[in-house]
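User: If only I could read backbone structure tokens as easily as an amino acid sequence. Those tokens are not coordinates but codes from a learned vocabulary of shapes. Could you go through the record with me and say what the backbone is doing? Here is the record:
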Amino acid sequence: MTSLPPQPLSPLDGRYRAAVGELGEHLSEAGLNRARVHVEIEWLIAQTDRGFFGATPLTDHEKDALRQVVADFGQPDIDELAALEATTRHDVKAVEYYVRNRLTALGLDRIAELTHFACTSEDINNLSYALTVRDAVEQVWLPAFRTVIARLGELARQLRDAPMLSHTHGQPATPSTMGKELAVPAHRLTRILRQIESAEYLGKFSGATGTFSAHVVAAPDIDWPTVSREFIESLGLGWNPLTTQIESHDWQAELYAKISHADRVLHNLATDIWEYISLGYFTQVPAPGATGSSTMPHKINPIRFENAEANLELSSAVLDSLAATLVTSRLQRDLTDSSAQRNIGVGLGHSLLALDNLRRGLGEINVDRERLLADLDANWEVLGEAIQTVIRAEVVAGRSTIADPYALLKELTRGKRIGAAELAEFVSGLEIGEEAKTRLLALTPPRYTGLADELVDRLEVLE
């Protein structure tokens, strides 16, 4: 058997690349290296702007030329860094040499020794991860998340008046509307969205053990904590003033826990839609040319929701692991986070793939209102709750002497199917006020939805 040419090991980089490839712009090794170069160059500019050790500030032209290195970062740069790392056996040292090479090419050797000045590798890495994770979440994941929530909200408003039989414990229960039931996950997800939108992205820039030791020895008169804070904030990040060699990763744990929470609510949505499809409440729109089964030509399988379910489970598994492990580092530093953080893209990638499936799935279903009504008409016993509740109110008001209304309705309805005629006969014989009796006789399962329609108005509209 001949060997295959090199193949992607992960389906995210193979079969599903079209759906998640945009994340690679940020969370790939190349994206990380570009961010490292960005941080190193901005640190050079910050030092020369402050005139450290007599360095003259760079001209605007020189700054633009340095920043263009980041803007033009592409395959030749990726290859050059790979060759440098093959020699250095150290990824961040390779980045330092790469930047020095750019300084030489630009005639800026005079500031070469300010490259990576007073930095430990983690000073560069933690800021680079904060930048790449922030951009991946804000530019790629959040827009996909908002799209799913918006589609869910749109369906909720469209179907706000579509009465449906509820199924608590999988059994017929007090009716609702399909719109209200879809508004529930939309509301839950919107709340989580706001939490993720307000997430912190923190950084440290304080040397080998977080003490500014080398900084102070080199320049004891400089206010290094202020320099650190201002530099980190210039990158659009928050400053963590108290760390070991590494930034403590608490912000990452918080963020991944929130995204994993979103995954689980989305998982709940996917399984519920799957159930509604199996009940016939939703019909699926067949895609032209698509095949549902290799042997049963009639089938349209709910694969969008099944694929979403599987990928949400994988995403939560990775993100939960990162949230649990990244917050621990032995003493002042160990390298367990180095390998772990390289899987951030895997966790977000499976979530993004699930969002793509959900977006497409929610766009390929139609509600079957006739099926909803037929199911309601077959379950008049769900009005037992309404009847016993009205009787209790009548007893309190002195218009009835019925003892234990709940037991009375339990005897009538539990484990039984009764129709409109039987229920009307039962209500007509009740010892209750005429107004209450009239109200109950007018009640039908489709009309027994309470404020479900109005509750949809509680749903925030995403812009």
Remarks:
- The mean pLDDT is 94.
- The chain has three domains: 26-117, 122-286+300-368, 379-451.
- The chain has 20 helices and six strands.
- The CA atoms of residues 131 and 235 lie 8 Å apart.
